[in-house]
Predict the 3D structure of the following.
Amino acid sequence: MTGVKDGVTIVEAGYGSDLYGQALRLREEILRRPLGLVVTDEERADDALRQHFCAVAGGKVVGSVSLRPLGPHTLQLRQMAVSETRRGRRIGAQLLNHAEAWGRGHGFQMIVLNARMGAEGFYAKFGYGCEGEPFEETTLPHIRMTKRLA
């Protein structure tokens, strides 16, 4: 858990916990439902292999992110979501900073992610660089982005 900033605390949400359930609902609301999609059983199975972190305010999950090791030195960041009513309050920045600190603390040297086109500017502000050409994922164009942690 990290300190409270602007009434928001970043906490780990164990797979299957109440916080994880709230984060899953938030992800579905923000990342899937607008595309006419739902979180699949395959995505839930993949979630069991990830570390999940939530931004909590007033006892409610208002943001989430998950991390999965891809190897001994590389971590994949996925499922970054912030409640629409809480955007513009640096919750995404807090989640990203927490994820990077967690990665460093566990010996990871690189984070990779697939950013939706339009969101790459957010990650670029934090030192992530684009790699390769855009590609389609979950019906939208994305770009692979990376950042060295060490």
About this structure: The chain has a mean pLDDT of 92.
